[in-house]
Write a structure and sequence with these properties.
Elements (H helix, E strand, L loop, with lengths): L2 H19 L5 E2 L12 H8 L4 E2 L20 E3 L2 E3 L4 E4 L2 E4 L3 H6 L2 H13 L24 H8 L2 H14 L5 H4 L6
Helix pairs in contact: 1-2
């Protein structure tokens, strides 16, 4: 999308959602972490539209997304608060530990260690999970092996791992973690 198309699309969606829920939408997350170095202009658009925070930037190196040198902790960036996806620095490389396939594929002990390390450093963890990841019986579509790995591997473990995570760590909505209130 062009900046103008993006702005019109997001403005319309934001207005419709706010009308439905009768409260302001403060946060945004781009599909597939699609705000990259080439689309940082989108953060300026989001700030202009009244968003207070964004959770789209993944500080990793990946073929489709990511800004490896992006801030790893929430901070003011491009007119709003950027709350990046959580990573753990290992050997000079940011290892993604925020959720989704990473949560299912990485050893749970590594996820736990990463979250403890981030919390000790005063960095809140951003965790996400797709609802379908809690259903180990979802239909398997014929896809390339790497897509099958990221979409279907360890689905049978997701619910149990989520329970372990919730037993050990406190989580809350991003607006609360960042101390934001609708004005």
């Amino acid at each position: 999308q062009t900046p103008q198309e993006f702005e019109a699309d997001v403005r319309g969606a934001k207005q419709r959602l706010e009308a439905l829920i009768q409260q302001p939408i403060l946060g945004y997350r781009a599909p597939s972490f699609s705000i990259t170095r080439q689309s940082l202009w989108a953060l300026d658009v989001l700030a202009r539209l009244g968003f207070r925070y964004d959770c789209s930037v993944f500080p990793i190196r990946h073929p489709r997304y990511g800004i490896p040198d992006a801030p790893q902790a929430p901070q003011a960036w491009h007119g709003l608060t950027e709350f990046p996806l959580s990573v753990m620095r290992v050997g000079g490389v940011n290892l993604p530990v925020a959720g989704g396939a990473y949560f299912r594929l990485l050893p749970f002990s590594l996820i736990r260690q990463a979250y403890r390390r981030l919390n000790r450093a005063g960095i809140p963890v951003q965790f996400y999970l797709h609802p379908w990841e809690l259903d180990a019986t979802i239909p398997r579509l014929p896809v390339a092996w790497h897509r099958a790995l990221t979409h279907y591997a360890n689905l049978h473990l997701t619910a149990r791992r989520l329970e372990w995570l919730l037993d050990e760590f406190a989580f809350g909505p991003v607006r609360e973690v960042l101390g934001l209130h609708a004005n």
